[in-house]
Amino acid sequence: MADDVGGGKPSNTGGAGHDAVDSADSASATDSTDTDSTDFADPAGPVDPLLRVRNLTKHYPITEGLLAREVGRVRAVDGIDFEVRRGETVGLVGESGCGKSTAATSLLRLEEPTAGEVRFEGEEVTEYDAAELKRFRRRAQMVFQDPTSSFDPRMTIGESVAEPLVVHGMTDGERRERIVRGVLERVGLSADDADRYPHELSGGQKQRVGLARGLVVDPSLVVADEPVSALDVSIQAEILSLLDDVQEAFGLGVLLISHDLAVVREVCDRVAVMYLGEIVETAPTDELFEDPQHPYTRALLGSIPRPDPHRRGSAVELTGDVPDPSDPPAGCRFHTRCPEVIQPDGYEFEQSVWRGVMDLRVRLRSGRFDDAVVRETAAEADGVPAAELSPERVAAAVREEFDLPAELGDDDAERVLSDAMSALVDGEVETARERLAESFGTVCETVDPPLDATPAGHEAACHLHGEPTEPGAAPDEGRAD
């Protein structure tokens, strides 16, 4: 599918799902998705996307006390934009906890978004009332990561697959049964599997049933949340091939949520990369894999195992921890881990050394630097009591902790770092933090980069592709709410 970037795989409207729609009650039947795509075309441009998301935001309030006073917010999704066209598969990728699944449930209004626009077939989903929302959910279905947890163990497979038909008004039991058996066969199962229970099926078979349940009401959009992450590799290939086949047959738009870039490369036309609630890069799949423009994307691609002994050791190691989404860092949210973070003017560092300096700064800024732990580690290594360590040995231990050399190659930078080390040895952590922040500020920690076009032709949110900007006066301040 990756070759069909412009969207528009052929649609076959003769499948079991359309049989289901034709027999639903008037409320559902009048909402048929057999609409000519030209109805949504801009006379001066291409066909409008099936799904258009703008500034989608989902925050979870943090409360405390008997009155549940809000004291903060977890910024799970923080203003993302993307589109899905008819017949196209768009991948939404990133590490666990980056907000991918929350974005999916928010755009479908399984959870109410905090802010933003979600336009589906030209209509604003966030303004739907209960009846309109029910009709929308027939046109937009979700396939969940763990099908076992989404099935009622007391219901047969046939009953589970038929449940959406019941919800959307189909009262003819015989017709429901015929449609269910047909869609089960369409996803590679036997019609007789309708009489079995979830515990009798393998993981791959359950995922096929989950896909069948999503297709049975003939949706225009399928949101697949990690549909193969819990399956063996051989079964993954079967499910991905099945997803490709049914998309071609029904002309579906698919939003694929995944952390597995190998899966994304196999099935997606375009990819959006998420980090800590934001999209940091978006591109056609081939472009993203051949010429990634964001350091985070390069790190993700470097983590893909390659059966090539000549390319071993090419992975990008990310230092530090993923920041807390309730208190994301100012500037570029990736700067606390970025191996390519921009250096300050006036100094010359090796990039790996500069990353070590930034790791020290981040630790000091977060308040998680513990000099007692550093002293005890050094004392254990030297076989002496911590109280007997010299100031020079403690300073050296701090450098070892952050992979910093005994002396920086730049004399001016070394003076700054030595002053900060002296302050740390004396227990003056705040003084050390201020000294490093004053001299080693970077634009990456003060200015949030926009998602703009790059020389590669697609968009990324990174200062490496923009004009240099002054770091500013307060790089250690948190992001304002």
Q: What is shown here, in short?
A:
With 481 residues, the chain is of the alpha/beta class.
Task: Please tell me about this protein's structure.
The chain has 481 residues and is an alpha/beta fold. Among the domains are: 244 residues, P-loop containing nucleotide triphosphate hydrolases (Rossmann fold), CATH 3.40.50.300; 91 residues, no CATH class. It is 36% helix and 16% strand. The protein is built from 17 helices and 12 strands. The strands form 2 sheets. An 8-stranded mixed sheet has the order 6-7-8-3-9-10-12-11, with helices on both faces. Strands 2-1-4-5 form a 4-stranded antiparallel sheet. Helix 7 packs across helix 8. The two termini are 41 Å apart. The N terminus and C terminus are likely disordered.
Keywords:
Rossmann fold, alpha/beta, eight-stranded mixed sheet
Number of separate strands: 12
Largest sheet: 8 strands, mixed
According to CATH, what is the topology of the domain at 16-259?
A: Rossmann fold
The helix/strand order is: HHEEEHEEHEHHHHEHEHEEHHHHHHHEE
- The percent of residues in helical segments reads 25-40%
- Anisotropy-based shape: elongated
CATH architecture of the domain at 16-259: 3-Layer(aba) Sandwich
**Sheet with most strands: strand arrangement:** 6-7-8-3-9-10-12-11
How are the elements arranged and paired?
Blueprint: H1 16-22, H2 26-29, E1 51-64, E2 69-84, E3 89-93, H3 100-107, E4 115-120, E5 123-124, H4 130-139, E6 140-143, H5 147-150, H6 157-167, H7 173-186, H8 203-215, E7 221-225, H9 233-250, E8 253-258, H10 261-267, E9 270-275, E10 278-284, H11 285-290, H12 295-302, H13 351-366, H14 371-382, H15 391-401, H16 411-425, H17 429-439, E11 452-453, E12 459-460
Parallel strand pairs: 3-8, 3-9, 6-7, 7-8
Antiparallel strand pairs: 1-2, 1-4, 4-5, 9-10, 10-12, 11-12
Helix pairs in contact: 1-7, 6-7, 6-8, 7-8, 8-9, 14-15, 15-16, 16-17
